[in-house]
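BUG-404 | component: ligand-complex export | severity: low

The export step for adenosine-5'-diphosphate jobs runs without errors, but we want the raw record kept on the ticket for reference. Input record follows.
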Amino acid sequence: MHDHLLNKISYLNQTTVDSLRETDEKKIIRRFAESSIRIMGADFGFVWLNRKSTDANNFQLVYKSRGIPYTPKSPRPRGTTQKVIKTRKPLLVADLLNSSYLRKDANKHLKSLAIIPIVYKSQVYGSFYVCFKKKHVFTDEEKSLAEFIGTDAGQVITIHLFHKKAEKDSQKLLKQKDEFFNIASHELKTPVAAIKGFVQLLNQKVGRRDPESAYFLDKINTHTEKLSRLVNDLLDISRIETGKLKFKKSPFELCELLEEVVESMRVALPHNPIFFTCHNLFWLKGDCNHIERVLINLITNASKYSPVGSKIKVSLEKEGAKAKVSIEDFGIGISEKDRQKIFNRFFQSKENISNTALPGLGLGLYISKEILKRHKGELRVESKSKSKGSVFSFTLPYDKYRNN
Ligand code: ADP
């Protein structure tokens, strides 16, 4: 094979590879159109797309090369373009003047023309028009190349459309999931609140007299609390989605809040020692109930994804104009790949799920991130190599601070 031809084939392959990375259909078309002009040694070109190949009125001019000397007219219902679409084979016309293919609008500007249909199986998406100002006699190699251009472009567009559809379907599924959880959580809210109330009443009535019943009631209470947190998370998801998550902001001091939360988490998570350091006091304005929720969520995760006995370090320090809270654990850690997706709603690492007896719904980090965003703060996960644990940290702008 000639080097010349090899170069052209590898150029086309490169175009295919580059196009597969594109997320915009027009850019895919442009890449192939420019590549076909170059490969065929032509002067200019344009592209008509027609998804519904049966509908002749549905053509769209999606690309014109720079310096094109005239504006092409839309293909006619029984014109050459339709014929090419029917045969699904490139049409190469070396001598336009003496052919039946020439249209008046073009006759001053081109002498030879290649119409290359963009095909995938029985589907034809449209055609590349590769135009020559001077007469060009097509070689057999060019005939094969024209066919490759059309089928390569057809395959890339098919893959692109497939991805687009999959993405749309998954968005739709996510929406249905949201709707379902929204209804379910509203329905669950009242009975869960009722159970909580009656357990408290029962505890007051029999708890003091009967320690065994008190023990069971305590267990029911713990699980009802969990259930209630899940229901709240689900309700918050729909509030976030509909922009209805409300905050009651007032001034509070962050170190004090952290101390309180750490204190109660030490009781709730007795199997993981929690260390706390705070070098500064920070006064800020925010919804401390929601910030408390973020802390509980991050510390609970730190324990959930760590072995029994493994420590958790909570610290508060100054980072420029912001207070920075870090929660470090020495548990199973998060892979690089998962770190990209960890803040998406309903995301749960497949690797981590089997490691915990307490799988959640993959909502905590998503809600925490949103809460912090609404406080002009930021939640990040800092990298640590796998199995060495994780560090989650968040920043919040403060109004005032002093050394502790
Ligand atoms: P949940 O814990 O309820 O699944 P989250 O949104 O809080 O939901 O966390 C999402 C996912 O991130 C978890 O399923 C887990 O895979 C991973 N993850 C969160 N925190 C940690 C951590 N400290 N260590 C390891 N993995 C974590």
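Assignee comment: Attached the raw record above. The longest strand covers residues 123-132.
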